[in-house]
Specification:
The chain is of the alpha+beta class. The protein is about 55% helix and about 15% strand.
Length: about 190
């Protein structure tokens, strides 16, 4: 007996609304007793409906799951009603550390420090506190150092479904970055004339 499409969509909305975080497509399919491919098609259709309508919510896809969230267009209205937590400011140090984790994950703190050339204890702790990175395991080495990786909050914050969507850094870009760093270093350490 085939379920009515509106009933299926209603059940999906209920699941996504109630969970408040990304729900894996397989979990949704199992709960509704429908194959995963069909569930994905239904949710993509729902996403199109939400995007085209003047609704305050939308469905986003994150890795192998879906999440219901508010549209950014209505943020100004929301802050008037809800006590919104302080928005975290990402300094250059935090952004640099986060970039290293995003592109090199899983990665240890020591490996991040080797790339940055300075201690990153504070930066790593702040990024964990902001839920942008998390412990993803331990390295099979002496001392079993913690491995870090990005979180779903990271994906949401940067508007990507997975880290595969991050911009590619080509060798030309790396050379540009090195040149900019050298120029900045010369400006910073230029001798003062009397």
């Amino acid at each position: 007996m085939e379920q009515d499409m509106k009933v299926i969509e209603g059940k999906i909305e209920a699941i996504l609304f109630t969970m408040g975080e990304a729900v894996e497509r397989e979990q949704i399919a199992k709960a509704l007793e429908i194959d995963t491919d069909t569930i994905v098609k239904i949710i993509h259709n729902m996403m199109d409906k939400y995007d085209s309508a003047d609704r305050g919510v939308r469905i986003i896809e994150i890795e192998n799951g879906f999440q219901m969230c508010t549209k950014a267009d209505y943020y100004d209205t929301l802050v008037k009603v809800v006590n919104v937590p302080k928005k975290h400011m990402l300094t250059d140090v935090l952004l640099e550390t986060l970039s290293i984790v995003a592109y090199k994950q899983p990665i240890t703190r020591q490996e991040i420090e080797a790339i940055r050339g300075v201690s990153c204890v504070h930066a790593v702790n702040k990024l964990v506190e902001y839920h942008l990175i998390e412990e993803v395991g331990r390295l099979e080495a002496v001392g079993r150092p913690i491995l870090f990786g990005t979180t779903e909050d990271f994906l949401r914050s940067f508007g990507v479904q997975s880290t595969d969507e991050l911009p590619l850094i080509t060798p030309d870009k790396i050379e540009d970055f090195k040149q900019q760093a050298l120029e900045e270093a010369q400006l910073t350490f230029a001798p003062v004339k009397d």
